[in-house]
Design goal:
The protein is of the alpha/beta class. The chain is built from 20 helices and 12 strands. The protein has 3 domains: about 140 residues, Aspartate Aminotransferase, domain 1, CATH 3.90.1150.10; about 240 residues, 3-Layer(aba) Sandwich (Aspartate Aminotransferase, domain 2), CATH 3.40.640.10; about 110 residues, no CATH class. β5, α8 and β6 form a beta-alpha-beta unit. InterPro entries: Aminotransferase_I/II_large, Ethylene_sulfur-biosynth, NHTrfase_class1_PyrdxlP-BS, PyrdxlP-dep_Trfase, PyrdxlP-dep_Trfase_major, PyrdxlP-dep_Trfase_small.
């Protein structure tokens, strides 16, 4: 975890703990907030492809949210309301979920709670079903902020159910969740003396983008029933499925739930309606005791009356939702997803292919020299230095280093700027190959100290254990070292010749020492030193 330096004499132990608790997702967003990319005002700012926001449909939303029916102000909207949310909004939420979740029976407004975001709902649910130090099962990887949602207020922990990133045995899918894995983790928690109160399931999944079938979900719910565990089902991306080959099924579409009193469904507008700034989250549960308990915390997490009115107007406008927003949103998401996955394929980067959510879960393990979370974090910081904010696997408690989440729901011109992601990866690929080449080559005659022919050397080593050095690629990576654009050289000799020229004719070396680069990116140090040693001959 990222630690805020220093302890404050003005805060309690708990206050200092809260102040100092900042995960990688928060750390990256803080840096982005200070240096946001903007076409006109900050074209060299940080491009955010790490935060899961849909930025493709502002025009559609602006048109709808500025219509006259949205500007209504009634005295009741300016007064305190039921802390579960205004009745008119809870009625619209119940109708909306009945329709889009394909519920076999009408859902009831009395079972709905509205708060300022799903994070607030998760925190409140955890507080009323768990005691301090209790735990909730959650498959990994998972959306990392859930850890803070549960810990900061409720002091509830998460107990991880690690999913394997490799297919094998009975698992035909990567990161495949099974009842057996839930059973195994529950048993392990009990052996460690940890009390498990619930399970969190995310469908469609964040960050995997996987869509579980109804049969799979019912299987997970039946597991929870056997052990009298609550199940919190996060369905935030239920309408963000943009290909007919995949169909989402809400647990609310089931004819009957294994344990309806312990099944609680969370949904909001942040993802499906691209309205993260509205801060609206909804809970549906048939457990009236839980509704009453959560409502007692509603005064801390209320939503303004005018916002509730706007959301109700939006949800009841089925014509706009079905004929304008959803078709166009899905079309744009599909196009953006196709663009990003095409870029990944062109570089030979594996990824999970699910036409859902706002992101792609990609395997960048080949860009870290060793399988460690330290190296993964180094790669994450390398992207950030190149003004690209991504989300790395450890931010989602992934059990294997090297996986990253790419958010593709961005404007076209931003996506094109995403080519700097490609450029950064090419840089790392070239440096990795160059490092392997320099270490494995024991031929001192590769570089002639008196002449540097521009033709391809006939002495270039053949491929053995790893891929042969891509010299054209490696020469491109000089951009990372000197930050000056130049034509790609034909081979390693030209690269070293160019580097030699820079050393002799400028102050570049003083500004770019190996130690300075190593402080920012340890991956570069060995390569840099080896290059300098040869180039100085």
């Amino acid at each position: 975890m990222f630690q805020t330096p220093g302890r404050s004499m003005y805060l309690s132990n708990r206050g200092n703990s809260i102040r100092q608790q900042q995960g990688i997702l928060q750390e990256g967003f803080v840096q982005y907030a200070r240096d946001q990319y903007d076409d006109a005002h900050n074209p060299d700012g940080i491009l955010n492809v790490g935060t899961s926001e849909n930025k493709l449909c502002y025009d559609l939303l602006h048109k709808r949210l500025t219509k006259p029916d949205m500007l209504h102000v009634d005295p009741a909207l300016l007064q305190y309301s039921d802390w579960r949310g205004h009745l008119f909004l809870r009625e619209e939420v119940a109708k909306f979920l009945t329709h889009y979740c394909c519920s076999p029976k009408p859902l009831k407004a009395d079972n709905v709670v509205v708060m300022n975001g799903c994070g607030s709902l998760l925190s409140c649910i955890a507080a009323v079903i768990c005691d301090p130090k209790d735990a909730i099962l959650i498959p990994t990887p998972f959306y990392g902020a859930i850890t803070e949602d549960l810990q900061l207020y409720s002091d509830v922990r998460l107990f991880h159910v690690p999913l394997d990133c490799e297919a094998g045995g009975k698992d035909s899918r990567l990161f495949n969740l099974t009842v057996e894995k839930l059973e195994e983790s529950l048993k392990k928690a009990k052996q460690e003396g940890i009390i498990i109160r619930a399970v969190i399931l995310i469908n469609p999944h964040n960050p995997l983008a996987e869509v579980y079938t109804l049969k799979e979900m019912i299987g997970f719910l039946e597991f929870a029933k056997r052990y009298e565990l609550h199940v919190i089902v996060d369905e935030l991306y239920m309408l963000t499925v943009f290909d007919e080959s995949v169909t989402f099924h809400s647990v609310l579409s089931a004819d009957s739930l294994p344990d309806p009193q312990r099944t609680h469904v969370v949904w909001g507008l942040s993802k499906d309606f691209a309205m993260a700034g509205f801060r609206i989250g909804t809970l549906y549960t048939e457990n009236s005791h839980l509704v009453e308990a959560v409502a007692q915390l509603g005064s801390f997490h209320g939503v303004s009356g005018t916002t509730q009115h706007q959301v109700a107007q939006l949800l009841r406008d089925r014509e706009w939702i079905n004929e304008e927003f959803l078709p166009e949103n899905r079309c744009r998401l599909k196009a953006a997803h196709s663009y990003v996955t095409g870029e990944l394929r062109s570089m030979g980067i594996p990824y999970l292919h699910w036409p859902a959510t706002l992101f792609v879960w990609a395997d960048l393990r080949k860009y870290i020299r060793e399988s460690s979370f330290e190296r993964e974090l180094s790669l994450w910081r390398c992207f950030l230095r190149h003004k690209v904010l991504l989300s790395c696997g450890q931010a989602f408690s992934c059990s294997t280093p090297g996986w990253f989440r790419f958010v593709f729901a961005n404007q076209d011109h931003h996506l094109k700027l995403g080519q700097c992601v490609t450029r950064t990866l090419h840089t790392l690929s070239g440096l990795t190959q160059l490092f392997r080449y320099l270490r494995e080559s024991d031929k001192a005659a590769i570089v002639n100290s008196t002449s540097l022919p521009h033709s391809k050397s006939s002495e270039q080593p053949e491929e053995k254990d790893g891929p042969v050095l891509d010299t054209a690629l490696a020469s491109r990576e000089l951009v990372l070292l000197d930050c000056q654009a130049s034509n790609a050289a034909e081979g390693l000799d030209s690269l070293i010749g160019t580097l030699r020229h820079q050393i002799r004719s400028s102050d570049w070396l003083e500004k770019n020492t190996p130690e300075l680069c190593a402080g920012e990116n340890p991956e570069i140090l060995d390569v840099f030193k080896a290059l300098l040693q040869r180039a100085s001959k």
